[in-house]
Amino acid sequence: MRAFADVEAEGRVTVQCRWALVLNSLMSQSGSVLWCGLILGGVPCENRTEEKSKAGLKVPPAEMETSVDKLDSNMAEIEEIIEGVEEAIEEAEEGLDELPEEVQEELQGEIAEAQEGVSALSEAQKALKALIGTASKLFTVAIKFTLTNVAVGAILWGVNVALSKLLPQGDKQKQEVKRRQQAVIKALIAVIKTETDISQKTVNWLKEHKDDTVTLGGESVPLEALLEKYLTPINDATSQSMEAATALQTDLQATTPYSGLPIGDTVKLISAVGATLNGYSDLITFITQRQQKFPQFESFPVKQLDIVTLTVQIQAVKDLPLW
User: Fold this and answer.
1) What's the pLDDT tens digit per position in 180-234?
2) What's the rounded Cα separation, in Å, for the pair 160 and 154?
3) What pLDDT is recorded for position 199?
4) What are the DSSP calls for 7-47, one per residue?
5) Which of 135, 147, 193, 273 is a plausible cystine mate for 140, CB 3.0–4.6 Å?
6) 241, 273 contact by CB (below 8 A)
7) Which residues does residue 222 pair with via DSSP β-bridges, in sequence order?
8) Which of 84, 190, 86, 207 is nearest to 143 (CA)?
9) Which of helix, strand or coil describes residue 148?
């Protein structure tokens, strides 16, 4: 058993990511195909890729645009991710009656928990969608990285359910590995939820203050412009989380029989959520130090306590054994 720090020290952060398959499945009109096949079994990964190619599905850009004009299409992509995961989780219930009773109960519990979690993320996405028409440049960046966290959370719920159904039942050693993997995924889901909550607070504050200005050097500038230096790293970090989560999703079905989640992808996701924490920590330090000069910052809803909570959650993930 190895913890995050051991793997990180060894430099074993290798990601075998099949981007064409990930992006076709996540952001095309057939966004649920990968999840349904992943959870229910069926066509191997390579064959699925070939089938999608024949169908003429296009691979969208890996990075979401952050301009107001592109936010609508970004929103549609996130909706497809959520819908795909929701459909796959529902279909995961198929064939449960063929499994032992204790296994059925465990899977039903995982499915119900995932449905509740994804439903909450769907509501968050809808709330963000209602803000599109009022988005300024920095406001748009905040909406984008909040949406990215929503998508990562949905993907991880799908991964958790897939783990429950894919890994062989009855093998004690493999079941122990599964428990360790699910413990890490669930701990990461908790981290992503906290990051999403913090991001939503940020979005709501930016909405309230989007027209505020401050005087610098005798000139009036938007209040939000003071935060650009700090919001951009958060946006970059959540994009890294998305890359790692989609890599996990793809590699979950990349081998037959399935042998476990790739440690490299998992470590990359842990590192990415840590980078998001660092970004918010820097933002809160800046805001706290300048509240006297810019009184509007006093109402910023993300506080040091939020940073402490996120720090504790991420450390809890790092302390878990990696298989």
Assistant:
1) 888 999 999 999 999 999 999 999 999 999 889 999 888 999 999 999 999 999 9
2) 10
3) 96
4) HHHHT-------HHHHHHHHHSTTTTHHHHHHHH--S-HHH
5) 135
6) yes
7) 213
8) 207
9) helix
Phi then psi dihedrals of residue 310, to 5 deg? -65, -40
- Give the Cα separation of 216 and 214 in Å (integer): 7
**With 0-12 CB in 10 A as exposed, 13-18 as middle and 19+ as buried, what is 139?**
buried
Cβ within 8 Å of residue 205, ≥6 positions away = 299, 300, 301, 302
Q: How far, in whole angstroms, is CA 197 from its chain's centroid?
A: 13
Residue the block writes with tokens 């952001």: 27
Q: What is residue 308's predicted lDDT score, i.e. its pLDDT?
A: 97
Contact call for residues 44 and 260 (beta carbons, < 8 A): no
Q: CB of 118 within 8 A of CB of 85?
A: yes
CB atoms within 10 A of CB 70: 13
* pLDDT tens-digit readout, 251-291: 776 655 556 677 888 999 999 999 999 999 999 999 999 99
Q: pTM, whole model, 2 decimals?
A: 0.77
pLDDT in tens, 91-143: 887 777 777 777 788 788 888 999 999 999 999 999 888 887 665 677 788 99
CA dist., res. 14 & res. 170, Å (int): 30
- The CA angle 148-184-14, to the nearest 5 degrees, is 70
Q: Peptide bond before 257: cis, by omega within 30 degrees of 0?
A: yes
CA distance 107 to 88: 14
Length of the chain: 323
pLDDT, residue 260, reads 67
CA distance linking residue 213 with residue 220, whole number of Å? 6
Pairwise CA distance, residues 283 & 12, whole Å: 30
Strand blocks (E) in the chain: 213-216, 219-222
